[in-house]
Amino acid sequence: xxxxxxxxxxxxxxxxxxxxxxxxxxxxxxxxxxxxxxxxxxxxxxxxxxxxxxxxxxxxxxxxxxxxxxxxxxxxxxxxxxxxxxxxxxxxxxxxxxxxxxxxxxxxxxxxxxxxxxxxxxxxxxxxxxxxxxxxxxxxxxxxxxxxxxxxxxxxxxxxxxxxxxxxxxxxxxxxxxxxxxxxxxxxxxxxxxxxxxxxxxxxxxxxxxxxxxxxxxxxxxxxxxxxxxxxxxxxxxxxxxxxxxxxxxxxxxxxxxxxxxxxxxxxxxxxxxxxxxxxxxxxxxxxxxxxxxxxxxxxxxxxxxxxxxxxxxxxxxxxxx
Length: 322
Fold this sequence. Notes:
Helices cover 27% and strands 21% of the residues. By secondary structure, the protein is an alpha/beta fold. The strands form two sheets. It has a seven-stranded mixed β-sheet. Strands 2-1-3-4-6-5 form a six-stranded parallel β-sheet, with helices on one face.
């Protein structure tokens, strides 16, 4: 059994981790840390787990009793936590924040996108889990990068559910504002663009194009649906063949011959990708659940790889579709 600690246990990503790990055949949750909820039942916060666990939040962090710890902090807090706390060298770390996603001197965190870094993840002590938008967009573009198709700026539009903004209420997550509404935010300046470009550069060898990304807030709770436009004269049959080859052996990312929709992936750790051609424009659509393949599910997928487990263990989840 993999012994697990969770830090920042009150948020959405921690709640999803618990939902998966409680039913994971090889997982033993040792502690769930939340200083603001210490002593309270986990089900007082994550009400959907009522009847699934009797655990309480704790303010202690018994790192000596775990094999891996998940950081479910807000962005910027993981780096601060490591500077202020000593985690034993034999304890692996999976960070769900953005603090260590970009390569830099002294950063030994492996970027946790299994579709391109599986071998490195398997040997890693520290993994930086990708961002939700970044995961969806990269999975739509990586095969194109592998084929060397990204030579001009890529147009990206993607819409996300309200859970992408986290559990703490803000004006743009309030039901009366969000319901029946949509808006854009951080146009061309979203924080996930650098990690997207880092991965595309890794596969293509270079990247001289921009990723012109416009994110949308949707009036639904969870999921990301992205449309990506790549200019290329390569025939669509060749492109589709490249996409199918790229994802042929992937357990959780799949190419679809038919147009895809969001409900196929919500509440699952799957990613779906579809291509079609319009003149010299390749239209790629991709979709994921932002809290699962875009966060906690991918984190468990990375844990499975790090500990030599079945990659889909705990993640065989079917989309409701209705």
